[in-house]
Amino acid sequence: MPGMRTLDAADFTLATPPAPLDAEGIHVWYFRGVAKSQRADILSRLLADYLGIARERVEVERDTHGKPRILAPRAPALHFNLSHSGPSLIVALSRAQALGVDIEDGLRDRPWLAIAERFFAPAEFERLAELTQARLGTAFIELWSCKEAVLKALGRGIAFGLHRLRFRWDAQGRLAGLSEIDPEAGAAAEWQVVRLAPAAGVGGALAWHGRDRPLLAFAAAARP
User: Which of 6, 91, 96, 193 is found 20 to 30 A from 104 (Cα to Cα)?
Assistant: First the structure.
């Protein structure tokens, strides 16, 4: 099986929103230096840019599982998902595809193995337990981001159960892809998961259920 694709900093083109997005493609926008108070404004401006309307007309709500969606205007369709961590904000957009995205900025010390034993599949916990302490935190965050991106794309979030999907590793100890998922979410082979590394110390993942699609990534400065 092929390994997971990674978009690193070189794949994120400096640009100003919007960029042309057709029904086939997916766009990912990374914003750095974003204060908590700026997040909602940046999101509404970005959505307005892609919808071609004034940002005051954009209304966003969360569904019963907490996933954000556009309430108004109803058409044209625009799917999106977002994640923020520290000064980083990432937004994924598609005209035809439900998406899930997660971002983690920085590595804070946590009881990684205790969390993994409680929430991850047993095989994943066992694999993490084999790692050195220096590698453990990074590997845990990478796995968590991939799982969360899948569950956000599914529209259920972590309430679905992090243990109900399992990732595999390659011979070099890198995540290689989704190997198992509860049948309720479809077959594992039907899922696309892409690692994101838009800046040093920043990592995450993008996921969607369905065929592979053209994917473009952009980096933009936070706008006032």
Answer: 96
Over residues 26-78, the pLDDT tens digits come to: 999 999 999 999 999 999 999 999 999 999 999 999 998 889 999 877 766 89
How wide is the angle at C-alpha 146 spanned by C-alphas 91 and 182, nearest 5°?
Answer: 120
DSSP sequence for 138-157: HHHHHHHHHHHHHHHHHT-G
Query: Cα-Cα-Cα-Cα dihedral of 116, 119, 120, 123, to 10°?
Result: 80
Residues 6+ apart with CB under 8 A from 71: 59, 60, 61
Among 205, 33, 203, CA closest to 106 = 203
Which amino acid appears at position 72 of this protein?
Answer: A
Residues 204 and 194 sit within 8 Å (Cβ to Cβ): no
The reported pLDDT for the residue numbered 1 is: 46
